[in-house]
From TrEMBL, chain A:
<keyword id="KW-0813">Transport</keyword>
<feature type="transmembrane region" description="Helical">
    <location>
        <begin position="6"/>
        <end position="26"/>
    </location>
</feature>
<protein>
    <submittedName>
        <fullName>Simple sugar transport system permease protein</fullName>
    </submittedName>
</protein>
<dbReference type="InterPro" id="IPR001851">
    <property type="entry name" value="ABC_transp_permease"/>
</dbReference>
<dbReference type="GO" id="GO:0005886">
    <property type="term" value="C:plasma membrane"/>
</dbReference>
<feature type="transmembrane region" description="Helical">
    <location>
        <begin position="88"/>
        <end position="107"/>
    </location>
</feature>
<feature type="transmembrane region" description="Helical">
    <location>
        <begin position="267"/>
        <end position="289"/>
    </location>
</feature>
<feature type="transmembrane region" description="Helical">
    <location>
        <begin position="138"/>
        <end position="164"/>
    </location>
</feature>
<dbReference type="Pfam" id="PF02653">
    <property type="entry name" value="BPD_transp_2"/>
</dbReference>
UniProtKB/TrEMBL annotation, chain B:
<keyword id="KW-1003">Cell membrane</keyword>
<feature type="transmembrane region" description="Helical">
    <location>
        <begin position="75"/>
        <end position="96"/>
    </location>
</feature>
<dbReference type="GO" id="GO:0022857">
    <property type="term" value="F:transmembrane transporter activity"/>
</dbReference>
<feature type="transmembrane region" description="Helical">
    <location>
        <begin position="108"/>
        <end position="124"/>
    </location>
</feature>
<keyword id="KW-0762">Sugar transport</keyword>
<feature type="transmembrane region" description="Helical">
    <location>
        <begin position="341"/>
        <end position="362"/>
    </location>
</feature>
<feature type="transmembrane region" description="Helical">
    <location>
        <begin position="261"/>
        <end position="280"/>
    </location>
</feature>
<protein>
    <submittedName>
        <fullName>Simple sugar transport system permease protein</fullName>
    </submittedName>
</protein>
<feature type="transmembrane region" description="Helical">
    <location>
        <begin position="212"/>
        <end position="230"/>
    </location>
</feature>
Length: 306, 374
């Protein structure tokens, strides 16, 4: 029972960044500008959380400023892919690699450290224990003892479920991807929708990163996202635009990561256990291609002519 | 437009003589502008990154360049580092040309390195040439098999190759880390490394203590072969057709499936050989972080070279100098050597945004002229 409780608790904790990143990417899938730079955006978010946290000494300020920085980056990214016609796939791949290099550069030049930045001044986000539920087995570790960002991620899931059914905004976002001409004729602004999707993407990735760095660990390590963004990307591709399926996939990936932490080294070697989320994502991808008629979503790669 | 007007006043005969020269100058300019533009962006970025650390940009850059290409030894060192990257970049480019975005170069390099390290260490010492050849061949087969498998999934089952190759990176790297830390670990060493390979599985050094080995000749041969395969052979033509328009290629009788799987197989084989070079030309054994980042460098460089073999080789050489210079700069200052990756990222974004940026600027200019006119 103790093992199950800690497994579920860490499962929910590890689900949070994946779920946030997947929710971030979802609107960019609607507008057909699938952002493959989740990994990089999350890494910047994690870095921002630590840096702003150190500078202002408060977790709240850190998260707020990281989100603000995310929104700003989203505007720049959106402007590049809509107005400057930069291919979104190239921009995303470059963003991933750029983030890896830029955070190391900044880490070295701002703090003079190589590898890991961990200092007593870094605030960590408080976890909330819900008084009565906390003691209940199974339910307790799932519902209680998490950071505000974990709860926020589930609020966003609820909002997204509602928004997909009932709001004009989501319809406009989807129309910007599927029938841009129709949206323009109906008086919508296609470019604004595409930029909005990227802003949303970067803002949520910023939160996902902050959850990693100051929500779970209170430190920043080079390349600490370590493929989580790609796992989230697999969830987004797998769900084909549906929020509930997306949430389920994220939870599966989160639980798979929790297995890697909980399982004893003697039972499964740690590297094999760490492989689990990637293997599940890979198998999911193959299953998707076999079961759906259109073979799922293709990432918008550029053609190599001229 | 403004260039044409003076010619209208000239006699017919003279215009006939002048215009070809004029057009060739213009064609040359059109080719040179992107290169100059990216060069300028790279330089400006470098100056900003160095000045931001409180150093004088120009002397620092010169010191870095001196470290990278100052004398024969440093050129050899820079080149030695670039050799595996050239092979990997050519591999990635080859797949790009047939429309297959092989982002899994990193994993294929690791698989190749592991295969070469095991062949070198466990299959007993043989004649120098044969053992070395066996190492390269096994790593090419392993890397090629991984990539061909992913290519098969894309060609036959329509599994998006971008995401499948991305995920394969982590699966392969973790698996290799498992092999190197548990069953195949060198018991004499603490960290995650395999046994050292036999001497017969190592290239001989050309210039002492530079790590520039006779692998150079292998790489030159591979460059030539890849260029011929991609640009001159019938197979390469089929691959390029598939990349530009699969539907048109299929309609004109090209087997699209075979092109996709084939190009991925050769791409993976080259990445595998790149991994083997890491072992047989320098490290002498596999360790868990042997090729960190080389696969990603290759992906970026293949992108900026637009998958052309010749420009891929040129870009890798430029990048090798940049990276080596960044190392040198790191030694004389506190500017981190990650600067080279930041520069190449900036250059790629600038290069892909260039056309759009110029259109925006022209638009702004037109608007300005119109407002002046009123």
């Amino acid at each position: 029972m103790e093992l199950l409780n800690s497994f579920l608790g860490s499962g929910v904790r590890l689900t949070t960044p994946i779920l946030l990143a997947a929710l971030a990417c979802l609107p960019t899938q609607w507008t057909k500008d699938l952002n493959v730079g989740l990994e990089g955006a999350m890494l910047f978010g994690a870095f921002g959380g630590v840096v702003f946290g150190l500078a202002f000494g408060s977790g709240f300020a850190a998260v707020t400023l990281t989100i603000a920085a995310g929104i700003l980056s989203g505007l720049v990214f959106g402007w590049m892919i809509t107005r400057l016609n930069v291919n979104v796939f190239i921009a995303g791949i470059v963003l991933n690699i750029f983030a890896g290099a830029a955070t190391v550069y900044l880490l070295r030049s701002l703090f003079g450290v190589k590898g890991t930045l961990s200092a007593p001044g870094i605030p960590s986000l408080p976890t909330y224990r819900i008084p009565f539920i906390d003691g209940v087995p199974i339910l307790g570790p799932i519902l209680s003892g998490h950071t505000v960002l974990t709860y926020l991620s589930w609020v966003i899931v609820a909002v997204a479920l509602f928004a997909v059914k009932n709001t004009v905004l989501v319809r406009h976002l989807k129309a910007a991807g599927e029938h841009p001409a129709a949206l323009a004729a109906a008086g919508g602004n296609v470019q604004r929708m595409r930029i909005l999707a990227q802003v949303w993407c970067f803002a949520l990735c910023a939160i996902a990163g902050a959850q990693l760095s100051i929500g779970q660990l209170t430190l920043f390590t080079e390349g600490m996202t370590n493929g989580l963004g790609f796992v989230a990307l697999a969830a987004v591709i797998f769900c084909r635009g549906r929020v509930l399926l997306l949430t389920m996939m994220s939870v599966v990936f989160g639980l798979a990561s929790a297995v890697a932490i909980q399982v004893n080294d003697e039972v499964i070697p740690p590297q094999i256990a760490q492989m689990l989320p990637y293997l599940i994502a890979f198998i999911g991808l193959v299953v998707l291609a076999r079961t759906s008629k259109d073979g799922g979503v293709r990432i918008a790669t550029p053609t190599m002519e001229s | 437009m403004s260039l044409k007007t003076p010619f209208k006043t000239l006699p017919q005969s003279q215009e006939g003589v002048k215009s070809p020269a004029n057009s060739s100058v213009r064609a040359l300019a059109r080719r040179a502008v992107p290169g100059l533009f990216t060069l300028a962006v790279g330089l400006v970025l470098a100056v900003i990154l160095i000045e931001a650390q409180g150093y004088q940009a120009l002397p620092t850059i010169m010191a870095g360049l001196d470290y990278a290409v100052g004398d024969a030894t440093s050129i050899a060192r820079t080149l030695a580092w670039g050799l595996p990257l050239i092979v990997a970049t050519l591999g990635v480019s080859l797949a790009y040309r047939s429309g297959m975005f092989n982002i899994g170069a990193e994993g294929q390099i690791y698989a190749g390195a592991m295969a070469a390290a095991l062949t070198g260490a466990y299959i007993g010492p043989m004649f120098t040439g044969l053992h070395l050849f066996l190492c390269l061949a096994v790593s090419a087969v392993v890397g090629g098999a991984v990539a061909a498998g992913l290519g098969w999934l894309r060609a036959v089952w329509n599994v998006d190759e971008v995401l499948s190759t991305l995920l394969s990176n982590y699966i392969i790297m973790l698996f290799c880390a498992y092999l190197a830390t548990a069953p195949l670990r060198d018991p004499a060493r603490q960290s995650g490394t395999t046994r050292a390979v036999h001497d017969t599985a190592m290239f001989t050094e050309l210039i002492p203590s530079t790590q520039l080995t006779s692998a150079l000749f292998v790489v030159i041969v591979l460059c030539g072969a890849t260029w011929w395969l991609s640009e001159r052979s019938v197979t390469g033509y089929r691959w390029r057709m598939t990349g530009e328009s699969p539907a048109f290629a299929a309609a004109s009788g090209i087997n699209v499936r075979r092109s996709r799987i084939g190009s991925m197989a050769v791409s993976g084989a080259l990445c595998g050989i790149a991994g083997a070079l890491l072992v047989t030309a320098s490290q002498g054994r596999f360790w868990t972080e042997i090729g960190t980042g080389i696969g990603w460098d290759a992906v970026l460089l293949a992108m900026i070279a637009r998958a052309r073999p010749v420009s891929a080789i040129i870009w890798v050489l430029v990048y090798s100098v940049m990276r080596s210079a960044a190392r040198g700069i790191e030694q004389v200052s506190t500017v981190p050597s990650e600067m080279s990756l930041i520069l190449i990222s900036g250059i790629i974004i600038a290069a892909t945004a260039r056309a759009g940026l110029f259109t925006r600027l022209a638009e702004l200019k037109n608007r300005y002229i119109r407002s002046e006119g009123k």
